[in-house]
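hi! just following up on the protien thing from before. the input was this:
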Amino acid sequence: MVVIGAMTERYLGVIGVAEAFGVTRHAVHKWRSRYPGGSSHPFPEPDVEIDGAPGWSPDRLEELMNWRSTLPGRGAGGGRPTAARQDYFREAEARGLYRDEAERLLDALAEEFPEMTEAEACAWIIDRWRD
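and the predicted 3d structure came back as:
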């Protein structure tokens, strides 16, 4: 919220964007980090930032929706996880990791080794756990 005189302007934060899409705020944070400015499909830049928290004008909700509808890959909703990802999540759970922790680990490996497919990354982590 930015106060200008007696008028208060309202913005959508990460939680508001997540609610509009029906996803978690983690998904919005992931999109912002996975699709930064300068990438082939950059997430729309916020209109304001307050103490490090981004905010988008509610008028830009349609722009945000259009961005999501053109995501590469499996698109909105993501569908059912691949067999490799399902195996990976089962192994992660058996080792006491929560799903979001397991996803962060997989995302970190994907960033470090972009040449690996998701299936290869899942198998690589599982192999390390079993050693």
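The two ends are 51 Å apart (CA to CA).
The longest strand covers residues 2-4.
cheers
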